[in-house]
Amino acid sequence: MLRVYKNLLLLNIIFLIFCSISYSEIVKKIEVIGNERVSGETIKVFSTISEGQNVEKKQINLILKSLYETNFFEDIQLKLNNNILTIQVTELPIIQNIFFEGIKSSKMIESIKSQNLIKEKSSFNKKIIKYEKEKIQNALKDLGYYSSTVDIYIEKLENNIVNLTFDIDLGNKTKIKKITFIGNKIFKDNKLKSIIASEEYKFWKIISGKKYLNKNLVSLDSRLLKNFYLNNGYYNVEINYSFAKLINKDEFELIFNINANNKILFGDINLKLPTDFNKENFNILNKIFDDLSGKPYSINSINKILEAIDKITLIDEYKFINATVTEKLEKNFLNLEFKIEETEKKYVKKINIFGNSITNENVIRNQLEFSEGDPITDILVSKSVNNLKSIGIFKNVNHEIVDHNDKNLKTINLNVSEKATGEIFASAGVGTDGTSVGFGIKERNFLGDGINLNTSISLSTSSVKGNFTVVNPNYKNSDKSLRFSLEATELDNYQLFGYKTNKTGISLGTNYEFLDDLYLGLGTTNFYEKIETNSTASARQQSQEGNYWDSFINLDFDYDKRNQKFQTTDGFRSYYSIDLPIISESNTLQNYYQLTHYFDLFENNISSLGLYLEAANSLTNDDIKLSERINIPSSKLRGFESGRIGPKDGDDFIGGNYAYSINFSSTLPYVLEDSQNVDVLFFVDAANLWGVDYDSSLNDNGSIRSSTGIALDWFSPIGPMNFSLAYPLTKENGDRTESFRFNLGTSF
Fold first, then answer.
1. How far apart are CA 435 and CA 497, in angstroms?
2. What is the three-state SS of 666-714?
3. C-alpha angle 258-715-675 in degrees, rounded to nearest 5
4. What CATH number labels 492-747?
């Protein structure tokens, strides 16, 4: 019986070998027929088969696949008989011209063309037309045209040539009628609306393009929302989906579904090092870990840790290290372990940059943490990509690391997608202090050099201001910004202070990070000023009429430890500025200091405590100019009319040489809790203004003015509105109080 089984097995093996031999054949000749445009030799190359090669029947399908992938042929027939492989092809037509009808904007047409699969002088494939139509419709949706239609017409010409016409009906741009946030979102709608870029359509918004539904803008909104929650301790936040619901024709409601989950605090944060590493070189990380323990989770704090690791890599012995993090969530605490380990030694052989049709290559290279020949690690690559994303001129940044035969050498391919960087803006406001309007133009990538241009003009009840500013954010790859500004201002203070001033001049300066979170600014301002007084001014004030030329050296020290610069909820900022006179008739030394600390007193509360100090004195004991005298900003002393406290000369309030204020504010999240567009806060202000250098008899006695009250921020259909109801606690005779104040602002 066993012998029978052996015989059967042997017969099966012989049968399989016979079948294998019988289904293969040596190709002695390849014939190509039906081709007119593509040469026979080219088709032979595409087939991946050469004469003398042994071909099995199953390889025929692979040959067909290779030829169809060239997108040159409409139909392909293969025959293998008598050692002759016959390839019969029917070529696809060639597209002579592509026309776009229904669109007048050449910029829009170029935007659509850049995403097309089909190009002029390429093959016309009916199977791709379906996808081409979808891509055009998606491109139009990105531009806000959600109701557009696309029809395709094919004109057949002689010699297997066609013309292609896309007939596009744009329809009306799709407007965002309403923006809604649903789910466990913690924060009110007015707060979240101030975070996102999209905005609700209003008939007066004739300039802003953010009022139209735009898929890319909505994606940006989702990222902005997620980062906001992550920076406020909501580690497990879910922006589940965002979608648009049709309300009326061409009007949608944009809805964001948010699940903030529980607030998470940093727990134990540890560092794991190789045994041969010197721990003292990593002390800076342990200090950061100690500072963060017990504080709310923040993505910005994680970035601070990564930046500290990046600085350690500058030490020669640590050039080739990588950091990984292990996260472990225990109840409401996130424990982290950062593991530092050595990686293989890799160097940059070449950097290729693609997609920058406008931006000059040096602008991109200036943001990279490496160049050809430098060591490369994953940390440096990630930081370089983040640097490029942060400058605000690219829609997308992708990278690829390509290996070489020498495993230590790498080519870095960077692919950027540019976006529109120009903006026209207009604004208007009305409030207790009067009305104002503004207009301006911004450009963030002038001439492709990454240079910021900003020109603006604003008019209010008492002033006209014009400004033209040029900023190079990374001058000659020095990590220092360079700023030039041309300014002109007319300030009419006849009614308040008895004088009017016109200033025109230029300023030049630089700014850079001197130490961690400490920014140093150095500059110079040079102004020509004309001061005029009216009949109500005193004789001493009238004596200051005339023309002045002043040049100052400016020094700024900005120590910023806020968790985020916008919608700050934790941390502090300490800012000091001094203006040193170089050429000046009065030789006025001006000092300004502002300290603001942010914290919470209870859940969902945001409180702040601020200190403001300012002084202006002549180094040569002269009288400082009328325009250099100090007045308390209205935001720092509510309950009093702006500019209507302190020393007086006759009927005119003349300001002082010294000023200070202490301000406390705290949100009341459980007052009007269900009103999604209203925030209420409690405040206490205390301030003082004193000193009259030109006549000590006019000096105020230095009493403290103080007030308390309630403020209400309302994100109204017209625009953000602010109301304050204040009660003066202490005041002086002659001070003008103001119980109610409001401001309304909007953009166009």
1. 19
2. EECCCCCCCCCCEEEEEEEEEEEEECCCCCHHHCCCCCCEEEEEEEEEE
3. 65
4. 2.40.160.50
- Starting at the earlier edge strand, list the strands of the sheet with 409-418: 347-354, 409-418, 394-403
- Yes or no: say if 426 and 439 are a contact pair by the CB < 8 Å rule: yes
Taking the C-alpha atoms of residue 523 and residue 511, their distance in angstroms, rounded to an integer, is 9
Which region holds residue 634: left if phi is over 0, alpha if psi is between -120 and 50, else beta? alpha
Q: What is the fold, at CATH topology level, of the domain defined by 347-418?
A: Ubiquitin-like (UB roll) (3.10.20)
Place of tokens 């300490």: 574
Specify the amino acid at residue 620: T
8 A C-beta contact, residue 705 and residue 730: yes
- In terms of Cα–Cα distance, which of 212, 194, 210 is closest to 745? 194
Q: What average pLDDT does range 391-411 have in this prediction?
A: 87
CA separation, residue 390 to residues 366, 396, 566, 568 (Å): 13, 11, 15, 19
Going from the C-alpha of 236 to that of each of 145, 243, 263, 332, 562, the distances in angstroms are: 35, 21, 8, 11, 22
For residue 227, give the amino acid letter: N
Residue 730: its pLDDT value, please?
93
Residue 464 is predicted with a pLDDT of 93
* 715: nearest Cα among 175, 193, 178, 182: 193
Q: For residue 255, give the H/E element and its range.
A: strand 251-259
CATH of domain 2-91: 3.10.20.310
pLDDT number for residue 636: 94
Between CA 638 and CA 185 the distance in angstroms is: 32
Residues 6+ apart with CB under 8 A from 371: 348, 351, 365
Spatial contact of 189 and 211, defined as CB atoms under 8 Å apart? no
Lowest mean pLDDT across 8-17, 303-312, 408-417, 495-504 = 8-17
**What is the dihedral angle through the alpha carbons of 192, 195, 201, 205, rounded to the nearest 10 degrees?**
140
651: alpha, beta or left, given left = phi > 0 and alpha = psi -120 to 50?
Answer: alpha
CATH topology of domain 94-169: Ubiquitin-like (UB roll) (3.10.20)
What angle, rounded to 10 degrees, do the helices at 126-142 and 106-113 form? 130
Q: How many helices (H) and strands (E) does the chain have?
A: 13, 35
Predicted pLDDT at 2: 44
Specify the residue for token string 């910005």: 300
CATH number for the domain running over 265-342:
3.10.20.310
CA torsion through residues 120, 126, 131, 134, sign: positive
* Angle at alpha carbon of residue 208, lines to 363 and 716, rounded to 5°: 125
Question: What's 175-259's CATH class?
Answer: alpha beta
Residue 610 host element (H or E): strand 607-618
Which residues, in sequence order, are CB contacts of 481 under 8 Å at separation 6+?
471, 472, 473, 474, 475, 510, 511, 512
* 558-585 core/surface letters (b: 16 or more CB in 10 A; e: else): bbeebbbeebbbbbbbbbebbbbbeebb
Give percent of the chain with pLDDT exceeding 70.
95
Strand 84-91 relative to strand 29-33, pairing: parallel
Whether the model clears a pTM of 0.70, i.e. scores above it, the answer is: yes
CB of 484 closer than 8 Å to CB of 506? yes
In the numeric block, which tokens belong to residue 225?
């929302």
d(CA 679, CA 685): 19
